[in-house]
Amino acid sequence: MAGKIAIVGGTGPEGSGLAYRWAKTGLDIVIGSRDAARAKEVAATLRARAGRARRLTARHAAAVAQAEIVVLTVPLPAL
Is this model's pTM higher than 0.85 or not? Predict the structure, then answer.
């Protein structure tokens, strides 16, 4: 099983969709976001839906620092 997975851009539709599906299978997901309030809101929603989203963070750098796998899910213009 994979270690902790950071999703950079985790509050958007792609990132939160992946976070939900992976958390539901029991993986440890960390969501990175530029907006701490938005990250907390998405985390609460994911926990309620998946029941397994254990750790979420508000900053991209913090999410990446604590993960073994990093997934980038930002809109193409942001690249």
Answer: no
User: Smallest Cα–Cα separation from 6: which of 75, 74, 63?
Assistant: 63
Identify the bridge partners of residue 43 per DSSP, sorted by sequence position: none
Domains and CATH numbers, the chain: 5-78 (3.40.50.720)
Q: Please, are residues 30 and 67 in contact by the beta-carbon 8 Å criterion?
A: yes
List pLDDT tens digits, range 30-41. 888 888 788 878
CA–CA gap between residue 11 and residue 8 (Å, rounded)? 8
Rounded distance, CA 58 to CA 15, Å?
14
